[in-house]
Amino acid sequence: MITKFDSSYVGSVDLEDAGYLGKPINDRWYSNEELADVMHKTVAYARQMDRLGYNTLWMAEHHFQPEGTECIPNLLMMATHLCGVTKNLKIGCGFNIVPMWHPLRLAEDYAMADILTGGRVIFGIGRGYHTQKASTSSSRPSTRSASVTRASTSRCRRKCRIAATRSRNSPWCRAPCAGPWNAGSRSRAVRSAPSTSWPSTASAA
Questions:
Q1: Which residue of 62, 123, 152, 199 shows the fewest CB atoms closer than 10 Å?
Q2: 103-116 and 146-165 are packed helices; what angle lies between their axes, rounded to 10 degrees?
């Protein structure tokens, strides 16, 4: 017998003239106000689901989509906020796009969200599929390969395990060294950090 119910919301504006014969998606372009209203709609949906006894609201991370179909760029930030305005609803991340994040930062942010929400945020990861995510962020599509995603995922898992086992007063993440995620100028703190071997993205498929 099914006792728990989930629902999903990927963060879309109210699309007018939708459907097969409607306005093509690539011809749509919405204002900042219309795109920002998605955040308020997400809060309204979460509160209603919480009142109705739903188990989990699943959201999707997407970037740079002014056509209005998927407009939530930071799931962990949104999930932490939603847990603050609901009582029991869990928030599922489907998914955090790993190549868009430094793996240690993603692990650290998720560990913080996990603590602040009492474990109500469900961690999920994906590769992403829109080339505009890579091109708009000035990153080579090759760095979006499966090999980089696997390496990033491994680091996220390892750092999350470390965060769960060490005391809260003990720092568990040191400043990262030069690697494919933080090329360019580095601060004194990063330059003085111990050397770390990062996987090269030059040969990524």
A1: 199
A2: 40
- List C-alpha distances in Å: 60 to 8, 86, 97, 145: 8, 19, 9, 20
**Is the model's pLDDT at 141 over the cut of 80?**
no
What topology does CATH give the domain 6-191? TIM Barrel (3.20.20)
Is the pLDDT at 204 greater than 70, yes or no?
no
Residue type, 111: A
Give the CA distances from residue 196 to residues 12, 70, 139, 152, 178, in Å, rounded to whole numbers and listed in that order.
40, 36, 22, 14, 8
Contact between residue 182 and residue 190 where contact means Cβ atoms under 8 Å apart: yes
How big is the CA angle at 145 (ends 144 and 151), to the nearest 5 degrees?
100
Tokens of 7: 């629902």
pLDDT at res. 152: 57
pTM of the model: 0.67
Token pair listed for 202: 């030059």
Segments making up each domain of the chain, as ranges: 6-191
